[in-house]
Amino acid sequence: MTVKNERADAIRWIQAQMADYGLTMEELAAAGCFDPPPPPLPPAVCYRNAEGLTWDGQGEMPAWLRRAVNAGQSAEFYRVG
């Protein structure tokens, strides 16, 4: 099945649901169906130092934590929670 056919099937299904439940476009809009999705939440902080610098554990280790680890400190020392 092509994307075009799948899309047409989805539209027909939505139209049938709207007809079955007596829904209008105005009611769907009032219910927030067409609102843009909320922005993603910022990543949770996993590591923090005494200066307040943070890292979420994603991507390359930041310089402040890399320096501490290279100096012999465990990264787990800076783990939050």
Automatic annotation (TrEMBL):
Record-annotated DNA-binding protein H-NS-like C-terminal domain positions: 47-76
A GO MF label: DNA binding
Pfam family, one: Histone_HNS
Superkingdom in the source lineage: Bacteria
Protein name: H-NS histone family protein
Lineage: Bacteria, Pseudomonadati, Pseudomonadota, Betaproteobacteria, Burkholderiales
